[in-house]
Queue: 4 jobs
Job 1
Amino acid sequence: MQKKECMKKRGTPVMRQEERTAYLCLIPAFVGLIFLTYVPLFAVLVLSLFKWKGISAPVFNGINNYIRLFAVDPYFKDSIKVTVIFSIIAVIGSMIYSLVIAMLLNRKIPARGMFRVLFYLPYILPAAAVYIGWSWLYETNFGLFNYILKAIGIKNIMFLNDSVAVIPSLALIAVWLSGNLIVIFLAGLQNVPRVYHEAAQIDGANSWQRFCNITIPCMSPIIFYNLLMSLITNMQVVTPALALTNGGPGNSSMFMTYLMYKYAFKSNQMGYACAISFVFFIIIAIFTGILFKTSKSWIFYEGE
Amino acid sequence: MKKKLLTLLMVITLPFGVVACGSSKTEPAESATPATQKSATAETKDSTAGEKVHLTYALWGGEDEAKNTQKTIDKFNASQDRIEVECMPIPWETYMEKLNTMAAAGQLPDCAIMSEAGVIQWAEQGMLYDISKMYDGSEARPLDSLAFTYQGKPVAYSTAFESLLLYYNKDMFDKAGIPYPSANADEAWTWDEFVEVAKKLTLDKNGKTPNDPGFDKDNIVQYGCMIENLTWQLEVWCLSNGSGFYSEDGSKVIINDPAAIEALQKIADLYLVEHVAPLSSGLTDDGVQRSLIAGTCAMTTNGAWNIGTCLAAAREEGLNYGVGVLPYMKEKVTINTGGPNVVFSQTKHPEEAMEFLKWYALEENNWDALIATGIWMPTLDSYYKDETLTRKWLENPAYPEYEEAKGVLVDYAMEYAKPASWYYVNNTTDFNSLLSSVLGDVWTGKITAEKAINDCFVALEEAHAGNN
Amino acid sequence: MQNATVSSTTQMIVRKNSNKIEKIGNLICFAFLIMIAALVMLPIWWIFRSSLMTNAELYAWPPAFLPNKWLFSNYKETLETFKFWLYFSNTMKIIVPSVVAGTFTATLCGYAFARLRFRGKKLLFSLCVGSMLLPNMVTLIPLYMMWTQGFGLGNTYWPLVLPYFCGGGAFNIFLIRQFISSIPRELDEAATIDGAGRMQILFQIIIPAIKPAMIVVALFLFITLWNDLLQQTVYINSPDKFTIAIGLSMFKSGLKADWAKIMCATCLSFLPGVVIYLFGQKYFVEGIVMTGMKN
């Protein structure tokens, strides 16, 4: 009701004042967006039409970079497949893990503060160190995990050396690293009005029903945020390939961003790398778009 | 209240930012800020005679090395009054990113040490200055095998001569009662002899070797060997089997040659068939630590720099290791490499940069930090020919016994070392990374080397031609 | 107001009934958490125990859970070359202004998207979300050219700090927006009726309610900046301006592969992050109490 009235009142001083406030609030962000994101993005788009190696002057190349990418490139198709599979495993894994942990940490359990630090720790650690640590654990011949497996009589798993096992192994690290999601969930759980839970408890709802009917809907904006953030960060994943696998074995961990990195910084093919990053931008945009489209049906905004 | 607090915060923040950044900005302009500015001022400096030319030298390496390099450079700065060099340490992890970014912006340092694999490519793209005149008319010349050549002209010289060799654990050999690998190339093992020795040195948890009945291949506690399978090091085995990655002049890819494929399969079979080696996928650069220092392998192959980078310290902790020549398949061969020093074509002062690099490459100038410690092998041929100099170099506590070290690092290296292909072949970065990806499933036995190479041969050729 | 009274009476009833069940539940949860926490800590413990070992021990087989001798001297030796305090103060010069400004501008922006009505909202919001889809690496070179050639700010902290005065990143704007969206709108509508302006509502109602979210944003900004190796190495040239991330990476680039000391430096480098988190987490608990009362 009120909303409709306001819409009609577009020209009124109240509305104009609201608009002014909004633009004022958005100024810093949009200066940033324009100069730090969209102008460079446009530059990337333009460069993707050039053959540009090293310091030689860029040569106009039309859409040849794109043709090469789709028709010839030996890594491209694998890299999309690998990235999508990795993202799906990592996103689902880390969402479940972090929501469960956050729910547990939100209870009145002993040493809650300590636990919160413990689960957040992996996120704080410098990525390079994290991957070195994990590589020791994963080492096929002498690592701790295989030592344990051997001790209980299971055959070795070739974690990072096997083209089938490498993606789940890296996804496990991604799940382990998702301390940031836990923190957001924790903060979000505090916004679930306690009265709802108490009222439901009086009505005899068990904790699973309360979880499905109260916690999830109230948390839906936060769940959506975490889903989106973890989808985007996992689709842009590059550090495991840089630190551990170099995209191997085979192309089994040739993530999209790593492929772009390889062309841009290892083989000096800036124009081509720009074309790749533009295609990846669109792929990520499609996934994000799907997520946004489907979100409308299940997000419940308190304010609306 | 809240509003006041936040405004207060804002008020505090802004000047803090200004101070924090301002303080760094007001520092002297010569602290290696954009080359454009610098060279602009430098040009005016040139005209006003007597003022110093300012050079920047980029390098990777840890704090220690940066400090030592700066000390060395200070000696150079003090030795003459025309050139002032400053070093710009960059962490290895992001070294090429930074150089590439600076190159694109036209702000490269004047000279730098680079990764071997990129040199020819950078030369092709016109980023390296032609340094063929650098050693004109000077007596002390680096070994010919240390020049990176593009279109017949040298574009860089390695700062060190590093050859591949065989490291072994003497205690494990003593325990098994097997004679040590020889340091004399005339007595080098054939591949089959090498595998036989490796079998005798491989033990499962019951102390059985692969030759014994009832050997438990899933519970090996000590492996006989580990051949380092970083892609560039694999080249030596293809050469050893009478083939190689590329044809003699580097113009053609011949890795689909049956002999080359056979060599790669033999390496994979050490794990897959013979059970004498651990699984290694050629991705990380800590092979010596994982094998020899960890005490899990009796023998391993790797570059000479490991003497200084990790084995010297390991020996202090009790590792009794020795060096020997590589086993061979058909031909006795090893390969050599070494980080190249380059002058970038963007520099305004190529002459001065070359003068500095020439000075810097002299052994006596980086002796303590790099050569005496075993990290670098000298580049001047006199160290390999004049015994007093050889002794001066090898009779350092970091090195193994003199006879052994001389046999492998001097005699073997001089007679049998070929430069790694990146000294003269273009696009080795792309080729090596594609090959590494192609071979990934060969090490685990999913496919044979033959199938892997033949399936991707066209892509490998394209990579070599610079088309992908 | 009404809510509060309802909640206190219901609370009493509920407590009587379910006190026991909740206690048992908590105990089970506690046991479960300990198990998971042990698994989560394993890699971290691995890094830490490695920092106290000799290099031979570190790679030894079978792998040891505890160091043979606890070599705390490794830390002393590490600090001799790892200039922790210099790096720390340099990093702080980047982090303090960035975190404060980033959190503040993200809040402003998130508020506008969540609560205010204005023309072009949809477009602006899509632009904002769109900027998240681009990995930093893509725009590294154009931005480097802009900062160094355009503004002559090479080898300064400006290119690292200034972006955070511009909204603190789309992720954070979006996070704040989501949190504001989950706060009942009745609260600010009541304030509007009382004659409060839009900015007053932000400062008096919204900000207290989303304090946990702001703390989260500040923590994220802190960690991101703390570990941002790529941007920092690209812009900073002189060793006396090196940050923790660069320093750690330099330490690792040493020609001598001394993993035990590298792990020492790593452990040292993430300590401040832990301290900051502990500090932030305190406010976090406070936030619970405040929003709890509001409801």
Job 2
Amino acid sequence: MDRCHDSIPARAGVSLKPKHYATVLEHVPAVGFFEVHAENYMGAGGPPHRYLTAIRERYPLSLHGVGLSIGADRPLDRAHLARLRQLIDWYEPGLFSEHLAWSTHGAVFLDDLLPLPYTAATLRCVVRHIDQVQETLGRQMLLENPATYVAFADSAFEEGEFIAQIVRRTGCALLLDINNVHVACTNQRWDPERYLDAYPLAHVREIHLAGHSCIEDDAGRPLLIDSHDGPVCPPVWDLYARALEQLGGVPTLIEWDAKLPTWSQLEREAARSAAMLDAQAARNSGTAVSAATRFIGPPGETGPQGETGRRMSVAIG
Amino acid sequence: MSAVRERLRLADQQRAFAAAVLDPALPAPDGVVDPAGRTCPKRFGVYRNNVIAGLIEALQDSFPAVCRLLGEQYFRAMARLFVTAHPPRSPVLLEYGGGFPEFIAAFEPTATLPYLAEVAHIERAWLEAYHAAEAPSFDQAALRTLGTMVPERVGELRFTLHPSLRVVRCRYPALTIWRMNVADGVPGAVDLAAGGEDVLVVRPGADVEVRALPAGGARLLAALGNGRCLSEAVRIALPRCAPDELSMHLAGLLRSGAFTAAEAGTAAGAAGAHSAAHPRLHQVRRRGSRA
């Protein structure tokens, strides 16, 4: 295969869902890259691997872990690290990312990204674990900033400073989730522009954009929930534009994990991000951007039309 | 504060946080506050809801027929009891719910639906087959070789079962009920006294296949799976089996992709209808070589 597909281009990608496997293989749409949750591909075999193998042959892939529990005050799960390593060997993703969060305690896995107090002890714990991840996987990982709903009385760092310290001590890179910035800033009553000013933007290698929902908190004020169940909202697009001004082009993922959209809805969201990336690229190169900015496919040919469903010939084993 | 004490504090905080997430009767842990520094049970409740609702949804996705039989509201109430009593032990959630069929079997309020746990066992077997390791089934060439073998040698064959193969033995017509309640199945009257069904679940290729086994088929597969050669397995499972009945069994199993290999005799390198190599687990075809 064409090895240039292995690194993730500074273009718009989307999270890959089983609902869209057949469409993607049939039409080979012009998407910059796909991203999957690592844990969804940790079965021994089966259709998920068959489809992902076929899609990986046509697109760059980013691997996003949601279960490593880097912030837990317990040793990292070596079996889980080994599973990640195996997936990375199989699929050779251009990027691997995980979260500044925890989700395991004792033997129990709590299926959520739980928040951390920003203290010196947490910093040491997270740094130790990221060192171990990068050593075991033999590559740099990206760390994602969290969407949070509570604060901790004993936090001693601001989030941006805490993340900057992690980067300084581990050499990891960052996945900037701009929806999480908006959600956390609303919920914690931080100023998002100041947040981005304090955030170590120079280390950002990927951006996430997603939708959120809104409920009321204990005081009757809006509390945003990082639900990934709808389109990206206007303040998040605005923050994205602001981040791009400083970052230039960065691979940008549209995350949509619940109340899944049709493929064309998802494509529209990605096209909007792609247009903003193109406009930024044009500004950077000093040329005017065409009004017909479009969502361009991988360089070169788009690859053979994929067989779909049961007739797919891609085999495992 | 010393580093050790700080560290203990993080462990304590996470222990209290985890306990309160799983038990709604517990208050939000100390030190968890809103931006104004006040306690915030509603904010904390977002985490509790994310965890519990997420796990309930995972079960709902894995047990669609059980959900349809009970109705969504009832199913979710029952699933809530399961997830709080048996939270996952692994971050690989596609494996979650292995104990759910047994939980249903022991769940007093649904004791009037004795087939429900059996339907759950079929759904669990389906999910396991879906994610099971890949292995090539017996191919046509191997089948032809088998056809040319003298009958005595056929009896010496030992079969390797496909890694996705599962057998669910039911005391009720659970397969019939399952079929009526998945995909576009249409529920209808079922005679619960009609007797049990043995169910074969296997995924030889891209699709999971579910079919009823004829009488004795489950015992035959169990004996073959325990490494018995064909003639021994038949003696154990189908003692009064007529030759045409046996060939019907074998033909059905071969067609359904139940086997990946057959070997004659026990000696190393024995000749026979050895087909593809033994299934190699966890192996995925690599794309190209590293440039």
Job 3
Amino acid sequence: MNKTILWCLVLVLACIDLQLGPTELELDKALTQVLASIKSFIIKDISMATTNNIAATILIEIRLPRTLLAICVGAGLALSGAAMQSLLRNPLASPDLLGLSQGAVLGAVLTLYWGFSSIHPLILPLTAIASALALMLLLIKLSSQIGRLQGLILAGIALSAVLSAFTALALNLAPNPYALQEIYFWLLGSVANRSFPDVFILLPCLLLGGFLLLRETSTFDALSLGENTAATLGFPLTQRQPYILTGLGLCIGACVAVSGSIAFVGLLVPHFVRGLARGLPSRVLVLSIPAGAALLLLADICVQMLPTAQELQLGVLTAGLGGPFFLWLLLGGKRQWL
Amino acid sequence: MSPLKIDSLSLSVSKGELVGIIGPNGAGKSTLLRLCAGLLKPDSGVISIAGHPISNYLPNQLAQQLAWLEQISSLSWPLLCEEVVELGLLPYSFSKSETQLRVTNALSRCHATQFAKRSFDSLSQGEQMRVLLARLLNAPCSLLLADEPVASLDLKSQHETLIQLREAASEQAVVIVLHDLMLATRYCTRLILIDGGQKILDGDPKDVVSSSLLVKSFDVNIAWVSHLSFSKKASK
């Protein structure tokens, strides 16, 4: 029931998001044009397709990727956050706890720093995903040696400190103010000015990662009774952890790669969902997907509607509003869920 | 991992037994139980359930053979009690109605039906134990293992818990770690005294507790007042 409501909300917000943009656009007209061009594409009547369809181009080439990315990134970050909290049995866990997102950030920042990103637009996201996956392999290796979850958290914190330091170093040594600004803006996170290739990079990683995480819902449920009990219920962490970490690496890496580091979504959404529906991790995971998508769409709508001189970066809004909301959850009637 | 060691220890437990493992702190009781549950791997030797070494089982198959109750059980998330009990059925693929039926039965067997829709966190420790017991007894497996199930309970809950486990022992083999010798003698069908990772005594509770080796292991003088004579005196 909650799931249906949340998905409907995503749909409504997506429609609103598609309407927004610097150019006025009548959505119904644009849609007719889109349909017309699809029709002409099918019947292979090229002459019809080339006639005046700027509105359709704006809708398909500019706004649709942006909306799709907001949905996917929101869903991906929220799902990884929920999985991370369930795996580590810790309500403070979020996608950046184990350093996976810092790994992706460092990869991306280095391509900006050395200017590789200007060679081809896909170099940045691909490097970011690759570095998140490299870090994931390191974490799997570490976790098999450490064994205990507590140790994995500490190792992840150590790794993310080192990675953040390198990112700070890149900022510190930035060759010129322009590079500095570029890196800094990218770090704040946004889904504006993206195109379909970004969506095509994100989707396969997100689908595979999401599949791996959703396959482990029983593991997460069993883990709520503790690591040992979970093992005696047939879900020994030593065996499940590599799959979970791979899923997390793919989801987080891909989301950071296309949108920068959008703060707080992964931490906030699982808590919000836990207040909405009672606590079994499997349910929190499934509900976090539409809730995350809805939240990021809402944030994207806000940045586009706010009359600021320069459009706000998404990360600014999610952290700026997410923090107080989180405090409200903590202090208010929902305290028992935290 | 653990500093404790179990050394050349051999025992077998069968259906119908409620085996109490006793011994001083650090004797290796919990380690023994963890070995049986497959949570620790022995450096040498074999642990078998139903005739097969546990290392031959897949995790899910092993989970269908035994159920385990942790010494300290806290939940990471506020779950409903019926959800907690249902988690005990994770290794099995029962239909939805069958699952519901088993959960209801397990709850009523442990006198916890009234807690079904309540949050586990809102219960007292004794009530939580009833729910956890329902979770444990919910599993249709051959071996139940419980590490100090009565350690933090009041007198009444201690007795109730052990009565439940004793009842379960008519269908299953039950092995528990206990500290309270009085309770151990009263409810267990067999006691095993462990010290220094070795089996010191194994047998009928009355014989075990009256042995001089028990006094030596615990390093305190133990005076036994028979239950019967005590109640006679009280009634006079």
Job 4
Amino acid sequence: MAPRISQARPQKTGRSRATNRDLWLGGLLLFWMAGLVVQLYHLQIIDYADLLARAQRQQRHMMEVAPKRGEIFDRQMNPLAMSLAVDSVFAVSSEIPDSKMVCDLLGPVLGLDANDLLGRIINSHSFCWVKRKITPEEANRIRDLNLKGIYFQRESKRFYPKGDLAAHILGYVGLDDEGLAGLEYGMDSLIRGSPGRVLLATDARRRSFQSTEWAGKPGKNLVLTLDEKIQYIAEKALADAVERWKAAGGVAIVQNPNTGEILAMASQPTYDPNGFAKAPPETLQNRGLSLIYEPGSTFKLVTISAVLEEKLAVPDEVIDCQQGSIVLAGHVIHDHKPFAGLTLRDVVVNSSNVGTIKLGLRLGEQRLYQYIRSFGFGEKTDVELPGEERGLLKPPGHWSGISLGEISMGQEIGVTPIQLVTAYSAVANGGVLFEPRLVHDLFLGQAHDTLPPVPGHRVISGRTAGLMKEILSAVVERGTGQAAQLAGYSSAGKTGTAQKINSSGAYSKSHYVASFVGFAPVGKPAVTILVAIDSPVGAIYGAEVAAPVFKSIAEPTLGYLNVPQDTPSRWPQLASLIPAGIPRQKLGSLVEYLPKGSEHLQAATSPLRPASFSSIESTRASSGREPEVMAAADTVVIDNSPRVTIPDFSGLAARRVAQECQRLGLELSLSGSGLAVEQNPPAHAQVPLGTRLVVRLSRFSQ
Amino acid sequence: MATAAATLPKPRRRPANALAGGRARFPEIYFVKQIDNSRLVREVDQEKRRECFRLLRLGILVFLSVLLFSWQHLQCVRAGYEIEELKAQCAAAQEWNRQLRLEQAALADPQRIDTLARKDLGMVSPSPRQVIQWGGAEAASPPQPESAEFARNFAAGGEANLGEP
């Protein structure tokens, strides 16, 4: 093997250099790693707690979750007030590069004055609301602007989908979701709920990747005794009357006399609670509770009831009305026209002041006062609404010589409309006074707090109440309340015309409160209605101004409530053919009394067998379904078949839902799988038998 | 050793360019000697080998544990994002549902329906003589619960019958 000859040994020098380089590199790495270890030690051991706290502060945010305010429904479960989450805009002034430019952009979008907004942003150190609870359109436009330093916050906003319907009862809420008026204020503690908290963990891009919730307590939902249809009927009739008579205002209340439940309470002028801030202050007043007025002749109900209850007179006893004037403690009191002798019944029918005063004098101060208190005057009715007045009633010790007479005929006493309608309801139902009620039920999920019926207290006997109903019925049939006669229904009531007190404390000669309070049908009253028109122009009498409003409210309301008609006025042709002497109760079998040749009227006019009845029957038999067409060209058939209350199916399995629907006679349409999460019609709705119920099932609980 | 090392003569370093032994520069010859030690077999230390494998297994286990932990953590974070997104979607759907219910309620406003019926459709309210109640006398009676409620209240009032005039 030939030796290789080389000039030098470069390998040795290169290896040495490489070794040196490796040593340096190793040392450097070692130093670097030592530095890392030292730094890690610092971070993980020494500064650990501090850094952990800083990181958590940076990543975790504890936020308060506003409670969901309870919804308000009418008695048919129609929503009257709901809450939705909307955006509020706020600015962080330190982050805004050019405040003026931002304000110039925001001002037109939000309808704000740019200079005013600029002042607010500049004066704020860090946080400043730009505008709260804006519309989705406004929010989208601002998002599109992509302004630095402008942020959004979700807040709950109250909406009233029916606008001004029942505005005075519902009330309204402020910016911070606190009730400010009406039931929103009166029931605030129950429907507001308590806030929850949520701990959010967010990344560097502020995206949430973890959240822990501490649930708050949502507010309870409220079911009112109101019926939105009756409320609308009352509001419309009242608004028409107030407009027609150019009145300062008015009030109409519809009450169920058998329970005290308020079915409608309308007050004029009114407002839209969705924009209550812009409403004039006088429109915010609920006159049903806060209007104190002298009831005038409508108050004679108390005096006459007391006289009859104490058996100080009988309806047919003749009272000397002294040709329309009487002197009391040096004061002369007149009737609206002179009467000589009137029976007690006719005293009321003709609304004689003199006759009523003379009856009141028989009672005496103490007994009249007791009856007035017993009928609920002079104290609050304790209805759930705030702002109720107790009225004006002096104890007998403070009465003057003329007070007994004045109070007997409804002067020198101040009452509220709700007190008066409640007193009339007591007569209508047979003598039991029930507290008026507006809230029927409170519920949260499946838990219902249905308010128990409030036991009433008897103020007059059933006999006295019966006599009063007969007398009040005569007022409508042939007295001052004839404008309150209803088509198809009997009615009873009393008109009232009271002078208002002017600013100098004297009775005004130009401002009156015209009122009518009555109930229908007389035999089995379903509704008691009060109408009071404040300061009508062109007419002052309750008979002319308020009684027609009673009729406008009562007729459609009784029809809507499917109350059977009890007078033959709906069958005028039939009435003309009825032989004299046939009792009213026999109207249902009048066919046999009709003369021959009037068969076309028999069917067309009989309350039990209408003309199209046979065709309806045949339709039902042939098709197995209820007829939907009109029975005749001008006849409306109201399906008055038995109704069922829809249960709350939420959380139930499909099998249970099906079983329940079968039991109730409802058709069922299921969608999805799992447990019921949604249903239509909603729970507690009253529907006819055979209604199709749509239930959506889901495996995920909402 | 240190003492022994100290007694040894230090090797004299010769400059790289110095002549060897004072003589003339002689080229160094680099012999390549092929040594075949393939026949030599290193004895395997079984103990060390087992220890090595043990260490290797432990290392792999630690590595896999760390990997699993990291994967779990990552999945946790990813699931967190998904949950939050689903929560947001659920809240948005519920809000949308509320909006629709609000819209439905607004559309069912009696005033709106009344206006539509009268103005757009030319409908009029039926007079009471045009209305025939369907369902018989029992169905047309006032709602039963209210009657029962009244009966209870009335009983509490103390009289058995109202008595009509």
